[in-house]
């Protein structure tokens, strides 16, 4: 006697014509669902990768498809929620139909763990490859064409799933607000790295510099960009009017600090425009009566806050004081703006405020008083490169003193990472000139 047929073959043989038709329709349905999954997944990339010009075209378009695209993109959060909801419904339907077809064909064998695992692996692979990877790659390269093909489907789904999408958006907004209250922040380094990655080839170095200047703007302190007290042009309160005019003609500045006895005792700021009506006065003219109050700021003040103070008080110059109240330096509105847009030179400025000369592409001669911020800009390195070794110093000469722990002799070499510093000129008090070689 022949062996009885296995249970699954008996079940298959006993399928009625109606059941066979149902299986065929189920298989066709699975194929259509995979197609739908591909279209919906690809539309996510297509819609949200449209360029600015393409978006403008959709706003001004006359065709129905482009109008629908424009209408959908006016509500980006709801559009994204609709796409995700529709895609999940399709994927769940694929899994359910695939399970039904497998059960109808294999019968009792489906209870075996191996069949279930195999079904899971196959369906997952097909959903990821055919329903995600392939359509998204294609949609990224043909975003407008893909968006047109799915405009009608998404417009209909937009209306059908509107209540559920609205609920999801509300829940996500609550979560987003809770995260914001916890103080989530993106670091400046992360933003700088994002700028390097996101900047397109057409972006110029100047544009990249401005973007990075904006990102770093809130991290810089007044001390990092101020003009040191040794470089301040100031006038003694006891100077007579004739000598005052001579000094003003030599400097070319529009605002000059005025001190009494020493630079640590700033009495006010002389605005040159206030002197214009009095240029013909005698030497005994009391120009001191024209002084305006000085604006004093600590070294640690951030320049973004200082910029707001300048705007609110309508002033352009501030005296920087140290922890003991002594004059540490001077900072102007121009200095602050230059941290974003770069150097601003007028007819009174030299080619560069930074005293340096370039020997070759990797070797420079700098004044020891050059600020580390200016040095880093000219050398093309990050301004945080020396943070761990600079201590309280903000000048190139001060950096070498921190690294060397003592005043170096002329010709002495100091190595730090890819920098070779050679002291060119030194006096008893400070480093005057430094040769810098950068190993690229």
UniProtKB/TrEMBL annotation:
UniProt entry tagged with the keyword Cell membrane: yes
Using the record's annotation, list all stretches that form the CNNM transmembrane domain: 19-208
**PROSITE patterns tied to this protein:** CBS (PS51371), CNNM (PS51846)
Q: How does it sit in the membrane?
A: Multi-pass membrane protein
- Where is each CBS domain found? 226-285, 290-347
Which Gene3D superfamilies does UniProt cross-reference here? 3.30.465.10, CBS-domain
Sorted alphabetically, the keyword list is: CBS domain, Cell membrane, Membrane, Repeat, Transmembrane, Transmembrane helix
Q: What is this protein called?
A: Gliding motility-associated protein GldE
